Amino acid sequence: MKRNYILEENVECKLSDGTILRSDVYRPNDDHRYPVLMLRLPYDKKTPRYFNEYVEVPRMVDAGYIVILQDVRGRFASDGAFYPFVNERKDGYESVEWAASLPCSNGKVGLFGMSYHGYTQFAAAAEMPPSLKAIAPVMSMTDPWTGMLHNENALVEIGSFATWTLESILPNMLKRRGEKRNVQQYTDDLPDWISYAPSNTWPPLKELDPNSFFFDFINKNMNQEMIEYISLYDHLQEMKVPALFIGGWFDSLLKSTIKAYQNYTGPSMLWIGPWTHTEMTGRAGECYFEDSATSIGMDKIQDPTELHIRWFDHWLKDKPLAIDKSVHLYKMGQKTWEALDRLPASVHVQHFYLESNGDARTLHGDGRLMMEPTTIDSLNKLLLDPKNPVPSYGGNSIVAGQEAGMFDQRKIQSRKDVLVYTSRPLETPLNIYGLVQADIWASSPSSLLDIFIRVSDVNPDGRAYNIVDSFHREVVNKDQPARIQMGVNYTAYQVKAGHSIRIEIAASNAPQYDVNQNNGQTSITASNGLPAYETIYHSKRYPSNIILPLENT
């Protein structure tokens, strides 16, 4: 098929410090001026995924845009040295203004991209380049890893951090240095390597790149000024450029996407589908959701590319948006979308209280979920063996060897170090809509208390598919009951009549998160932990429960 665009490769953008960034420029095959859509990424602008998978560049050009894919500083064809996040604000500002000044540009620029290149949009917007007219951050974040930098006891999503560093970043860094290292010896076995402890001496990077930024983040070797500079969350209320937020119910950055949207003060729109961080086809693990890859939303928009074009047509070409509402959510289990003026704030909730006779271990134990507070005073011991942690499986994971989405969790729920509580079959459908919360009473044998919670939909045939999950760590007084209140995650999901709700609780979730060593340390800095028991309480005095937000009727 004959292409109907002009491609100029490795066009140079010279920054004020002399560094040259290189871009591939796709533009209509004529001499007219057009607005620019730009993607700034660290993953190689030649990768097909960024040309015709997540959005389709040729269609954006056909819609009357110049599309620029730019390697950020220190990556692939661009000059300079790469260090995550720290250069994206100033570089982003200058790149936007460079794009606006191109001979074929009409001076209006929009930014798009997902994950890291969603962050590059926020970074540029924080500097307020005058030519930037709209952004479209997909499955992104505004405060990358700053939680673990601010708090020495914070959870570390070590699995995704290690995966990203070794697979996505390191190979090109070594190539640029002319170092012929055998990265594949580690990437082939990466699912095993990411479980190595302690992480601050991780062998793959200690051998291949001992001065890696990975160790700076892990060991908190960054000054406070730099931490504050890369954290953009506090700048969201200053950003006025229109923003299209897109998230996925099974994306690892769902909470970050919603948090950013809620605190954004410029014109904005939010779409959330049954998508993972790597797939927007409608498939999420073992489940498939209709009308979520094509014909999306109440407006039946063709696909994410068409959504982007409509968004930028409105803000860069003054065309009618023709999408009435600001929030668009896919309702899993109902095979439909809903359009709303704002994120739903649930008026009604359903509490499910944990109850047991003292042995809720495994799905074959006596753990129950009750709709009223329990009258039975009991507790359950929860094993945490640092050498044999409960494995991550599905959900919002983005870890080597793992797949995100919905999976039958019975294998995990059969472990002796997992507590399981199941409701009676529902008499009517239950529409969960919003932020699922947990209110759990627990104690720890050390100063660190770790709790992983998963909510599942149990089919009549016994299959138990995860809906939402989350991991939480808190500093506590040793062996003293503590109340742990946590937002699990957001969802829009219908549990059908005849199905049951199930809650599982574990004290670990590896390799997605670092592992508590039961001695005040974690697998980030130690590997000498011994098995020990946390305690989960459920009684009149300690009414542990899960809170499900219900769809307003």
TrEMBL record:
GO MF annotations in UniProt: hydrolase activity
Domain of life of the native organism: Bacteria
SMART domains in the record: PepX_C
Domain Xaa-Pro dipeptidyl-peptidase C-terminal: 309-547
Presence of keyword Ubl conjugation: no
UniProt keyword terms in alphabetical order: Hydrolase
NCBIfam families documented for this protein: CocE_NonD
Protein name, entry field: CocE/NonD family hydrolase
Organism classification: Bacteria, Bacillati, Bacillota, Bacilli, Bacillales
